[in-house]
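Data availability (excerpt). All sequences and predicted token strings are deposited with the supplementary files. A representative entry, Exocyst subunit Exo70 family protein, is shown inline so that the format can be inspected without opening the archive.
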Amino acid sequence: MGGDVLSERAAVMSESLLKSQSITDSVVSVLGSFDHRLSALETAMRPTQAEAKILKGPHDDLESYLEAIQQLRSNILFFNNNKRFKSSDGVVNHSNNLLAKAISKLEEEFKQLLSSYSKPVEPERLFECLPSSLRPSSESSGNQGDSTGRNPSSNSHSEHHHNNNLANADFTPPTLIPLRILPLLHNLAQQMVQAGHQQQLLKIYRQGFHSYLLWDTRSSVLEESLRKLGVEKLSKDDVQKMQWEVLEVKIGNWIHFMRISVKLLFAGEWKVCNQMFEGIDSLRDVCFAEVTASSVSVLLSFGDAIAKSKRSPEKLFVLFDMYEIMQELHSEIETLFKGKACNEIRESAFGLTKWLAQTAQETFGDFEEAVEKDATKTAVLDGTVHPLTSYVINYVKFLFDYQSTLKQLFQEFENGEETNSQLASVTMRIMQALQTNLDGKSKQYKDIALTHLFLMNNIHYMVRSVRRSEAKDLLGDDWVQRHRRIVQQHANQYKRIAWAKDLSAEINIILVLISALLFWSADLSCRNLAKWWRISLRTANRRFFLGSLSETRPDLVGNSPRSRRKRAPNSQSPTGAMTILQCLSVQGLTSSGGGSAVGVDGGNSSGVSRAVVKDKLKTFNMQFEELHQRQSQWTVPDSELRESLRLAVAEVLLPAYRSFIKRFGPLVESGKNPMKYISDTARRILTECLVNFLKGKP
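Structure token line:
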């Protein structure tokens, strides 16, 4: 009985213990739930804690401020998910209002930071970012590009060669906003985007408030940087009205400005956008496009005005320079303005490149036609090299500074023909157009001898210039040889017409020898030439016709004895009845009777008339004076060519004169007034006149 009671009591106690454990578990569960509710309540109370930080603002402690914003967002999320709390709606509304104030303060902070650290870049800072070879000297830093213009009459093309070596040069974009500030701006931008304030962010990036005035933050900073550099906002009308000399300088400046803008300023702005909007690519591209659009437009509008202006030959080289800088910047433009938002800017830049190429190609074509049709009436009275010739030759030589550019243009606009042959073909056409024009200009001269002297001078200048330039390799030896022969033909025509037929056979040989020496020995000096003159005419004839100068024969076609018998239909002796050499011949000296005479050997003879000798000397003096007065006004600017002509005449004329005086001088000297016909002074004057022959006016 007692055992049953104990068992019953033990069962009751066990049951009680089980109920107690259940109650304990229930209590623990209730307490756990209460703890959870307390935690939620604590969370609900946190907006009050974050509010103090948010109302204080982000300026002093941005990191804590951003943590408070994040806490607000967490609270809003919690109460939106726990609507059973009676106060949840009130907490959410309060938190949202507080968050709006927080974002507003973030915008102000973003605006303040951006405005404070957005400053125009001074030109000196930009110059420090350039390769050393492009940095201006101290005396020229305020006048960039004044010597960059291209004019065929100038020697200012060294910069073109210099610019061709810039492809691998080191350009270091400037730091536009301090590196320590960019992470802060990046965090602020992220919070604004997270709050759905992209448009406000974009507007602030473009526009800010400074001293209560609305101004373009990044955009105006870029424009002001360019203005300080020297970039001007010019309309098409402004460009059209400018004098070429002024415009040429501005084009040179524009080339520098384009390089600095793209490689330094725009590249620096891209770095700012890329770091500030990292992870927000679409906003980055839009901000970059809107900030740079105005500056790019100012630069490209000037290029467009030049590309679409009236074409003229002097613009060709600056068009080449502008085209080259756009080609140089092509890859940078493609990289910087690659987003969809930048399509318009990118296409405008590439469109300018095409316009420049097309205008340059058309101007190049115009030049050939302009050379052939040049109708300037200004004649060179002395027969020297015409200004058109020097202009065109310089033009052609400068074209070879742009061979790679020309090849690019040919590839873009022409058919599949090899570019070198195209350049050679165009160059030959220009040279032929020049010759055609010179032929027309030569007809302005009334004196046929001066016509040939003019053509000789000009074509010789062409040949000499080609031989000393890259054009020789392109035009080839055949072109050079052919035009050498033309020079010689005009030289022969000149001396035959100017000094009459009787001198031509002797002078032909002399001119041929000198021409061979001149053209085959570029460093032949006048002193060496004078030595050559000591060979006798007979030796010269023998050497020529026996072939000791056979290497010169390709230049001598048209100068053989057979061809020399052909005469121009309008060639006439300048004096009519008696040529200057006939005055010194023994023909006609026989007396028909009467007066005193001497023999041709110096003795008395009735066969030679003193009167005839005097008449010949008088006629010689008159004719020589006439030739001297006329040809002293003529010019052969090339000293070696002039010396060859002078010596060719002197080698025949002076010996003939001295021989005549030696044989017949005593007859005149024994008569009346011998000084009227012959004297030492006359001999000296004759020699000096030939020395100054074809030098033109002093």
